[in-house]
Amino acid sequence: MTASSSLPDEVAWFVPGRVEMLGKHTDYAGGRSLLAAVDRGHTVTARAREDRMLLVTSSIARETLEIDLDAEPSGRLGAGHWSGYVRTVVDRLRANFPGRSRGAEISIESDLPLAAGMSSSSALVVGLALAYGELCRMGDEPAYREVVTDRERLAEYLGCVENGQSYGPLAGHRGVGTFGGSEDHVAMLCGREGQMVQYSFCPVGFERAVPFPEDRALVIAVSGVQAEKTGSALEHYNRVSLSARDIVGIWNERTGRHDATLGDVVAADPGAADELRALIDPGTYLSARLSQFLEESERIIPAATDALAAGDLATFGSLVDESQQLAEEGLGNQTPETVALQRLAREMGADAASAFGAGFGGSVWAMVPAERADRFAVDWVDRYADTFPVAGRAATWLVTRPGPPAHRVRSS
């Protein structure tokens, strides 16, 4: 969504998927994450039309969504999951930047596994906003330039596009139904090739970058259990998200403060974390959720990044194991399949391994020596299929390293 002197006729952007190395459900709670973009993703191409129709096709869905830009938004997200994200982005851009929309044919090509925890849905949001936004020169709008001053702010805005919240003067509009944050969007827009980036959230703030070991690769096993955010899965996802708000609500009620996130509470005073723990009934889901956030965001991530910077992969692996355990016991968002994949990876000698993403299925990453990454991946998935034959038949794998952030492929 960059400014230009004339309306382009065609724009194409590549947007990568992402791996959440650490930072399970911490971003929207004002915590921190350790992230990496990957070398797979969506390529979104937008070509101008003379009329006021928007035709969107997906190589994966193999269908075309038609939107009449002169008609009022229908209020429905559409029957297809991917089409709901398209409508969400288009409707929000039309609402925030009226008069800028133009007819276009948009095509989406992808080599990113869907519903695998690599955030294909957020990559779609980012890709559509970048390609269609540039085609319409929405970045020329004063309201846009006022608040979207860099890629970090763009990531925040697109996180709000997805969850439906307002962003400064850019009024909120119907989102996709998930109460998530901007972690995915930050990784896709601000990742660094060959490095992992540590960010804090609410607001987004860069903390540090650490090189990914040159002789290591990331093997990602897609469990075969789809990490959907629809139906009952959406309810489970939002329970994890909304519980962080519930804890802050208890804190504000008891203290008379007006903190917005758990991160704000922790930053308020050196003793705030202990005081907050004392306010939450022990043995409850809220207590477990609070412990997970505090340990993951305040202790594990800074220590793990330090270990990586020092080349101490043994300590890094132990800290990642703690994060995985907290996800299982504190978040309650793991399935037997993702738990088994993580345990298998460590048994097979991976330096570190963890489930990642929203949970309730999806993928597990493992850091292994690059020279044996392909062999490790085959053996890993084969051993997994021995225990989970149904999911194992649908399981896939890929080998990757931290890749570049979203970038323009062409503009004419």
Describe the secondary structure blueprint for this structure.
Layout: E1 10-22, E2 32-48, E3 53-58, E4 63-68, H1 81-96, E5 104-110, H2 120-135, H3 142-147, H4 151-163, H5 183-190, E6 195-200, E7 205-211, E8 216-222, H6 231-255, H7 262-268, H8 272-279, H9 285-309, H10 313-331, H11 336-347, E9 352-356, E10 363-369, H12 373-387, H13 389-394, E11 396-400, E12 407-411
Helix pairs in contact: 1-2, 2-4, 4-5, 6-9, 9-10, 11-12
Task: Kindly estimate the percentage of residues that lie in beta strands according to DSSP.
Answer: 15-25%
Q: How many separate domains?
A: 2
Overall pLDDT = 92
Radius of gyration: 21 Å
Number of alpha- plus pi-helical segments: 13
Beta strand count:
12
Main sheet summary: 8 strands, mixed
Helix and strand pattern:
EEEEHEHHHHEEEHHHHHHEEHHEE
CA distance, first residue to last residue: 14 Å
**Overall shape:** globular
The CATH topology of the largest domain is what?
Answer: Ribosomal Protein S5, domain 2
Text of the CATH class of the largest domain: Alpha Beta
Q: Do you know the CATH architecture of the largest domain?
A: 2-Layer Sandwich
User: What's the helical proportion of residues?
Assistant: 40-55%
Describe the structure.
- This protein has 412 residues and is an alpha+beta fold.
- It has 2 domains: 10-209, Ribosomal Protein S5, domain 2 (2-Layer Sandwich); 212-400, GHMP kinase, C-terminal domain (Alpha-Beta Plaits), CATH 3.30.70.890.
- It has helices spanning 81-96, 120-135, 142-147, 151-163, 183-190, 231-255, 262-268, 272-279, 285-309, 313-331, 336-347, 373-387, 389-394; strands at 10-22, 32-48, 53-58, 63-68, 104-110, 195-200, 205-211, 216-222, 352-356, 363-369, 396-400, 407-411.
- The strands form 2 sheets. Strands 1, 2, 3, 4, 5, 6, 7 and 12 form an 8-stranded mixed sheet that branches. It has a 4-stranded antiparallel sheet with strand order 9-10-8-11.
- Belongs to the GHMP kinase family. GalK subfamily.
- Residues 85-157 form the GHMP kinase N-terminal domain.
- Residues 9-47 form the Galactokinase N-terminal domain.
